[in-house]
Amino acid sequence: MPDEDELARAFEVERPRLLRVAYSTTGSLAEAEDCVQESWLRLRRVPDPRAIRDLRSWLTTAVGRLALDALGSARSRRERYVGTWLPEPVVERAGAVASDPAERVTLDESVSMALLVVLDELSPAQRTAFLLHDVFGMPFGQVAEVVGRTPAAVRQLASRARRHVERNRPHTPAPRAEQWRLVHAFAAACREGDLEGLVRLLDPEVAWRGDGGGLVSSLPGVVRGAERVASRLIAFGRGPMPPGSLRVATVNGAAGLLFYAPEGDVSVASFTVAGGRITAIDVQRNPEKLTSVRYPGA
Fold first, then answer.
1. Which of 44, 45, 121, 210 is 20 to 30 A from 296 via CA?
2. pTM, two decimal places
């Protein structure tokens, strides 16, 4: 039997992928970390780990089940949630310590904010089936063990989820350079209070959503349309913004913005880009979902 050190090393190799599975399912870094930690405890309780033929598969199944349970519980709590619910953002920070869960999530299209927002419209079973099969490559038979359905039923769940995702997210993600160019231009227009400049950067049907969780002020609903969004952004900033209040950062693997208010509140903006313009802006302001985002100098 491998000793605990060997088992721990093997587990740590899989940890980034497991965090990505749990985070993309739950939309919460805290819940993802809890799911991964519980999978480690369950692995340690296995009488003979050598009997596990495929450790990656075993761990993915365990985390998938835990994340599905967490998602179901979160849905119940969300019925009492104040305002729009948005996922917890993953913000990459220079110099972050390796123990920070946000720095251990492998960032790619599977954890983009645009995809997570779309996935949140699915049932927990549909979301789990789609992610485990289409994103993480798990066979339908194994997904069926996680979801508690037959392989045929899981195939149908994933198919419905796939159609929903294809209808509701950009078919061709914008090149990374284009994302960063637009977000830098967006930040500059906000800093300068440039209304016309903002309108030019936004898609005519752009959607702006905000999540304050009832703890801080946020949008009461979705604001749509380039001119309405630009006008409200300028009003929100009350004219030109002070130096250092807006910082471009990597949010869920794409270009995003951090906004630091003078009173210490932090907001994280995620952007969806398609057709050379910004099509969606998702702003997370709920401090309970921003515990890993620190004020400069903190």
1. 210
2. 0.86
Q: What band does 97 get if pLDDT is binned at 50, 70 and 90?
A: very low
Closest by CA to 285, choosing from 204, 189, 214, is: 214
Amino acid at 99: S
50 burial class (0-12, 13-18, 19+ CB within 10 angstroms)?
exposed
- 237 Cβ partners below 8 Å, 6+ apart? 190, 193
Tell me: the pLDDT tens digits for 235-266? 876 655 666 688 999 998 889 999 987 777 88
| Structure tokens, 165 | 């995702």
Provide the token pair at 191.
């800093």
With 70 as the cut, is the pLDDT of residue 275 above it? yes
End-to-end CA distance of the chain: 45
| 236 phi and psi angles, rounded to 5 deg | -60, -40
- Distance, CA of 22 to chain centre: 11
| Among the listed residues 233, 230, 174, 175, the one whose alpha carbon sits nearest the alpha carbon of residue 202 | 230
**Sheet arrangement for strand 91-92:** 91-92, 246-251, 254-260, 266-274, 277-284, 202-211, 223-224
Q: Taking the mean position of all CA atoms in its chain, how far away is CA 261? A: 23
Which helix (H) or strand (E) covers residue 256, if one does?
strand 254-260
Cα separation, 80 vs 39, in Å, equals 29
